[in-house]
Amino acid sequence: GEVKLKLKLKRKILIYVFRKYSCLSLKEIGEKVGGMRYQAVSQTVRRLEESAKQNRRLARLLEEVDGKCIK
What we know:
This protein is mainly α. It has helices at 2-21, 26-32, 38-54, 56-70. The protein is built from 4 helices and no strands.
């Protein structure tokens, strides 16, 4: 349902933040978010960024997250 979708989006955003703002490797990020393979981590970030190009609401959400991480 909707709760599961929100959890999936939160996990994707967490992966995005780790990738963009940490020195962690893809493998380390995968371990921190529940044992994802490094390829899946890379693909998650790429797909999220691609989705944001088509979805203005998602793009604004990522901009908001980026703004909070930069401060």
